[in-house]
Amino acid sequence: MEIFTAPQELRDYLRGRSGIGFVPTMGALHQGHASLIARARSECPMVVVSIFVNPLQFGPGEDLNRYPRSPEMDWQLCRAGGADVLFCPTAETLALSASMTQVVPPLSMTSVLCGRSRPGHFTGVSTIVVKLLEIVHPQRVYLGQKDGQQVAILRRVLADLHLEVDLRVCPTVRLPSGLAMSSRNQYLSAAELAIAPELYKGLQAARVAFDRGTMDPAKLIEAVQLHVAQFPALTVDYVELVDAISLSPLTELSLTTGILAILAIAAKIGSTRLIDNLLLPYASPT
Amino acid sequence: MEIFTAPQELRDYLRGRSGIGFVPTMGALHQGHASLIARARSECPMVVVSIFVNPLQFGPGEDLNRYPRSPEMDWQLCRAGGADVLFCPTAETLALSASMTQVVPPLSMTSVLCGRSRPGHFTGVSTIVVKLLEIVHPQRVYLGQKDGQQVAILRRVLADLHLEVDLRVCPTVRLPSGLAMSSRNQYLSAAELAIAPELYKGLQAARVAFDRGTMDPAKLIEAVQLHVAQFPALTVDYVELVDAISLSPLTELSLTTGILAILAIAAKIGSTRLIDNLLLPYASPT
User: Fold this and answer.
1) Which of A66, A118, A267, B71 has a 20 to 30 Å separation from A56 between CA atoms?
2) Is A135 near chain B, with CB under 8 Å?
3) The model's pTM
4) Non-local CB neighbours of B240 within 8 Å, separated by 6+ positions
5) ipTM of the complex model
């Protein structure tokens, strides 16, 4: 496995290669990332993983400085997963600055869900992802459905700017408890870790109601809220049901219109903010 | 010469081609554009010209609807100039909308010179140019120094987003009177056309002062202002001296520091807004 920190050296190494599969990450890799690398490995002759804790996507007061970093374990996971190239740039090699050019996604997509409490977050994500794509020039880029809003926004950014890359979305990987894998799970105490799966169980409560025929978004949202309200350690930021492509809030669900909806939740446990989501109806992300 | 309107068809046609030289234009082509095409022809095995009057870069109340359009003459000029491909997309084929993803250049570069009276203009320019570059994937892109602020901003956008394309800047082409070639010159009446060259003559007055040793930006600016003030038909929007790369206003000029400065002017004649600029010291744009 080759390791690069300089964009130009990576670019020179990759020049002329086709069929690159790219997995952009912020490190602190877990089995969710491993599943992205495995899918890329199975579909692409060359797999590039990037590890970069992107300061552009953290707001003031957010957890940029304490975001978990485990470079050696990350390298091991990438090597074991069969990655060909690890790209570990720095803010310096990427020439990041607060005053640089920004890729600003549609406001309608960044002002909902997590965007409401994280202004600038998705602009920071979009800007870094476009930069990385311009350096790596992959044929396919792999993202996890756990970050459902990020997936929808990046799909739109790639289309809007005509970036020629195939976006592959992989299912959320969960612990046996149902808790979605997240680098931020490391922040949780044992007691908090016992409560965290209730986000998923709340979403499941709505799915059960949905399976039994409840199609009213307000009722589905309420099912989640009623579940998580039983746990005072959870402070809910939002529970929303939105179109999976446009992120527009949905006022009705129909099995016949073919809408793919995201039922999404964000909540704090102590000082840790967690997110999770389910896709409804049961169409699998491509 | 092949003509395309659909981005995907053009992309398919160009796939696998290297050494593409790209000249993005808004049509109403003149000898300035011809000089860009000629330079591309001399440097690149394949030359692509795009013609698209980009609505994203026109503000409300600007001249989008009356912007000159001369498709047949444009095609003739491109064919005569040896272009291999003409790309004439539409707002529909480019999937433009007011709510789409935007490429926003640094505020420090868009809030000076023309940016002050044209909010959003350079975001519109940057967004469309990134889209076109993603479709065409040229090795070199050709721009005219007449749009000095546009050149500086796009150079920065390309660097910030790691777009791998060589920016080639060509000198401003002028009429014998000194008037810089511009599609908007078509708006001028005969009387206005007689006054328009005074923008350039004002810049030249500053250059004469500079050649005689005047290094104080305020004095150089004043030299331009004193000249154009003689013509009441000219309403000056700005005369500014800025760093050619950062567009920061300059408080001093030095031949030894190697600063390349732009002395720029914008003025209205009747309802027509014209711009021009000179590079000081005499370093040629690359």
Assistant:
1) A267
2) yes
3) 0.94
4) B112, B113, B221, B249, B263, B264
5) 0.92
